[in-house]
Amino acid sequence: MGSTSSDPLEKDYEEIARLKFNAVTVFLSYNRLYNAAQPEKYNGVGWKRLDQHLALARKYGLRMVLQMLSVEGAQFVPIKGEAFDYRIWVQPELQERFVNLWEQIARRYKDEPQILGYGVFAEPITSGTRQQWIDLANKAVARIRKIDSHHIIFVERLCGEFGTRREMSGLDLDPELAFFTVSDPNVVYQFYFFERDEYTHQHASWREDRGKDVPYPDPRFEIVYRESVNDRGRVFPFDKNYLKFYLERQLEFGTRHKVPMFVWSFGLTKNCFPGQGGLDWLRDTIALFREHNVDWSFGPYRDEDSGVSDNSEALQVLSAAAEQR
Q1: pTM of the predicted model, to two decimals?
Q2: What are the pLDDT digits (tens) for 17-28?
Q3: 10-211+239-324: what fold?
């Protein structure tokens, strides 16, 4: 639904409710909630915007997830002209600012029934081992729970170790290593689903490494799925069978540990739709979610690169799926 970096649009909330969705996600940006030069002062413009989002969600009967997308000292997404930043994992001061911010959010919204829960940290990629994310996640959950015992906490899978995203390394972490349980009974374990990145992010304006056309399905595009350097891998053509395999591989963690799982974001850029099979990918992915009884949230509703607010065919597919769900 947007973020604390911009004002919400009522027409979007009205339309999303009409399309039969039941919840929205609002992205949180630390620099709209506090100033890095004065981290103890939580007086950024983002709080007002967040309350405006909340008022609109309440008006249109939509629950809300607050997802921390922008964290000080944490920039792990390949973006043209922006340097990577892994300071959060090695600077205790930044970790404390991060946890303090969640305490402020929890104090402000602990009694707000419209809020479904808190997404602690989006797409974590550590500078070292997975233990860095395990430690920070457990600390954040514990500190939130001292204030707010009601709301769901969403904890995301690890998306890479040693400063390398899974999409860049060509290696997927074993879900038993990427996910981990925290000692709290009201936690949902989340992951994103942009399979494959070469397709869903083709010609993305912020990516310099995704400049090729890739259709869906494409039997010529062979995917080698590997979980370690010495793993010879499994080879899949790019089709629904691969999507099914990848989804089921992630869901094994939930089944094994008897915990709920959530696809917190999935989608594709607008470049995937004209003649590239975007609607087919959308239908196949949603069908797999339904088959495996997985709750999901689509990516940006209104966005220059990947929004669907102006794509009536995609909205029809999503609305039908939401109504069935």
Answers
A1: 0.96
A2: 999 999 999 999
A3: TIM Barrel (3.20.20)
